[in-house]
Amino acid sequence: MSATFQRAPRELVDAFQKISTCNLSDALDKLGLPSGTNDGIHPVYPCPRIAGTAVTMRIVPDGSRKTSGHMGADPLDEAQPGDVLVFDNGGRMDQNCWGEIVTYAALQKGVAGVIVDGTVRDVDATEKLGFPVYAKGIVNRTARNRNVQGDYNCTVSIGGLQVNPGEIVVADINGIVVIPVDRAREVLSVVQDMEQKEAAIIAKIKAGISFRDVDKDSGYDTMLNSQ
Question: Where do runs of H (alpha helix) occur along the chain?
């Protein structure tokens, strides 16, 4: 089942590409929004940070529903360049749901990366291809006769964090954040202001000013107070 969703403008999505999830998490905290997760989901090799529009899919046990083809084929077909695939396998560690073949398909579509609440395989091949993959773990077992594609472009959960199709997702070594499209410009404004304040703090420390004095003058502990 697929539902349509509205995408944020590409230039807005791209603005999050170089921002750390730590800083984004702080901005989301300040705005009273869910501030991110890790919950064991991490890059399966030293891959780049990813940011893009979420195309989601829920994974279900084989036999629980009829499937029209290879797992992930439908969300891949709908994906646009720069999108991030977000797959919810309930954190299962015994069932693979991403590998070499779908990596080639994702590269063909220009997909930015994949986030899996579960395990993946063919990591050596994926690393050679340079495709970013974030997951809970690695397993060599095939998905065949174990799990299949369920609904896609639906609300899913990644490490306990709800992700809706069309939301902006960012993942790096520190974790994952999800940014509602209707709050994206607000989040961006807050995070840019906080980055400037943190840069000023670091500059003073580099200049030799004691951390005690810098901390006292900066108001760092109140930066996350609600606006």
Answer: 10-14, 21-30, 73-78, 100-109, 123-129, 184-206, 211-218
Cβ–Cβ < 8 Å for 51, 170: yes
CB count within 10 Å of CB 207 equals 8
Instruction: Give me the phi and psi of 37, to 5 degrees please.
Output: -155, 165
What is the rounded distance in angstroms from the CA atom of residue 99 to the CA atom of residue 42?
16
Query: Is the CB of residue 149 less than 8 Å from the CB of residue 57?
Result: yes
- Taking the chain (227 residues) in runs of 10, the rounded mean pLDDT of each run is 74 95 94 89 96 95 68 91 96 91 96 97 97 96 84 93 96 96 95 91 92 78 61
Q: Are 133 and 124 in contact (CB under 8 A)?
A: no
Buried b (16+ CB within 10 A) or exposed e, 136-163: bbbbeeebeebbbbbbbbbebbbbebeb
pLDDT at 1: 47
Q: What is the pLDDT of residue 220?
A: 65
- Amino acid in the structure at residue 14: D
Best CA proximity match to 118, nearest among 96, 100, 85, 142:
96
Burial classification of residue 59, based on how many CB atoms lie within 10 Å of its CB (0-12 exposed, 13-18 middle, 19 or more buried): buried
Task: Specify the 3-state DSSP secondary structure of 201.
Answer: helix
**What CA–CA distance (Å, rounded) separates 87 from 93?**
14
The CB density around residue 219, as the number of other CB atoms within 10 Å, is: 11
d(CA 183, CA 210): 37
